[in-house]
Amino acid sequence: MTRITQLVTLGAAAAQGIEAAVTFAVPSKAGTGGYSYAPLDPAPVGISFEFFAFPSYFTNVTATNQCLSNWKDLTGTWPPIRIGGTTQDRASYDASTSAYVVYSVAKPADAPATLTFGPKFMTLAGTYPGSVVVGLNRGKNNIDNTIAAAKVAVSQIKNLLAIELGNEPECKRGMIPRHGPKLT
Description:
By secondary structure, this protein is α/β, with parallel strands linked by helices. It contains five helices and nine strands.
């Protein structure tokens, strides 16, 4: 009996005032009970770091590495991380800066309106033992800058899983794409 047939039958029985008992046998251990199981991802949780804040999490917040290590101990593999978000679309790559990231804000809780990052940012991302997805700017529509940053990401992040071009580029305000009239 298919799931839909079961639901229709159960619904019809309930409509007629007939009580029906449904029993499900839940196996106490995966791979038992004659059921077929889909393989589980060894790292079911991924962690996302806002682009501008990523270096601080890895250099100033000691609990970050401990938390990621705890996930590794729990699952047997490092959780994948994503470095991106809103500020990736405000960030420009600057090969000459020796800082991880350069920005200013009016209040400490603010996200920067513009920022630059350098090769050291990608080198830091490359120290993470798990897989890394890094988001790069497409909001300013500077393809040469994005390509320069991507080349450094590929050379510095040995566990690079993907490069994300633009954060949520499908979001729109009215009829105009959020990141400008046209991305090329």
